[in-house]
Amino acid sequence: MNSRNGIKIFTGTSNPGLARAVCDYLEVELGHSKIDVFPDGEKLIKLETDVRGKDVFVIQSTSRPQDINLMELLIYIDCLKRASVKRITAVMPYYGYARQDRKDEGRVPITAKLVANMLATAGADRVLAIDLHAAQIQGFFDIPVDHLTGELVLCKYFKTKNFANLTLVSPDVGNIKTADKYASHLGGDLAIVHKKRISGSEVEANEIIGDVEGRTVLMCDDMIATAGTICSAAKLVKDRGAEKIYVGATHGVFCGPAIERLQDAPIDEIVVTDTIALSTEAQKLGVKVLSTASMLGEAIKRIHNDESVSSLFDDNCYV
């Protein structure tokens, strides 16, 4: 990597293992800092590495506990800004509050925009994220955003499976474009599940467009949260004769009843990336975790060297 002396990488407390893996890929040392908590719960961050004039990247997913991790990132950015760094990039493998990206009813916030404003106000010069819940969130920022996708990592893994009779199933209508992208990389047919939402955490899959009988089914999404959609779809395709069912997602959020639902669902393998550190309960599911470290590391290297990040998608580095 060029100019390694000019780059510094720091990590918050949300996912330090990923940050260390990124540093290993780039062959740079993780920046030293001290994160203390005052008796009243407030955070104090002190840098123990000289950063004046450096190109600095802070790796922090704003996953659970969202408010704590977000505030920690903002404090980190302010700390770096006051330490006279050259540029600050907030590396957010998982961007929390992204699902509230529009006003779908009266008197509700748009938190995805609020967080974008907070990051810029704190002093971030650019953002590097993986699979924002909606691509248009990039437009909420007035600073550059590099948007990566877990599809690059997941497709590389699923290609090693050499699936025969593969059908890519979209677990809901909104996921059709994602399923089509995976189909273009992996081959196979395409099917769509029609679902009916019963409540905020419960859905019912009641019809499928396409043939899954005797076939291997792969369902991929940007995240698994309560797992209602994916589990309902898995039960439907199993009832329709699917032979094997695989599920892939970039972000393993696994909240609410997700663990219990996934344990009961007819799924042969669940695959996620390491954008969010898995809880102990999620680890008991036997989830396959794929590393995003090389993808993030390559993007960081290209940003630092003023090279194209979008060419990652064209260079077949991962798929």
SSE layout and pairing:
Blueprint: E1 7-11, H1 16-26, E2 33-37, E3 43-47, E4 55-59, H2 66-82, E5 87-92, H3 111-122, E6 126-130, E7 145-148, H4 151-159, E8 166-170, H5 176-186, E9 189-197, E10 203-209, E11 216-224, H6 228-239, E12 244-252, H7 258-264, E13 269-273, H8 280-283, E14 288-290, H9 293-304
Parallel strand pairs: 1-4, 4-5, 5-6, 6-7, 8-9, 8-11, 11-12, 12-13, 13-14
Antiparallel strand pairs: 2-3, 9-10
Helix pairs in contact: 1-9, 4-5
Could you characterize the architecture of this molecule?
It is a single chain. The two termini are 23 Å apart. The protein has helices at residues 16-26, 66-82, 111-122, 151-159, 176-186, 228-239, 258-264, 280-283, 293-304, and strands at 7-11, 33-37, 43-47, 55-59, 87-92, 126-130, 145-148, 166-170, 189-197, 203-209, 216-224, 244-252, 269-273, 288-290. A seven-stranded mixed beta sheet has the order 10-9-8-11-12-13-14, with helices on both faces. It is globular and about 60 Å long. It is α/β, with parallel strands linked by helices. The chain has nine helices and 14 strands.
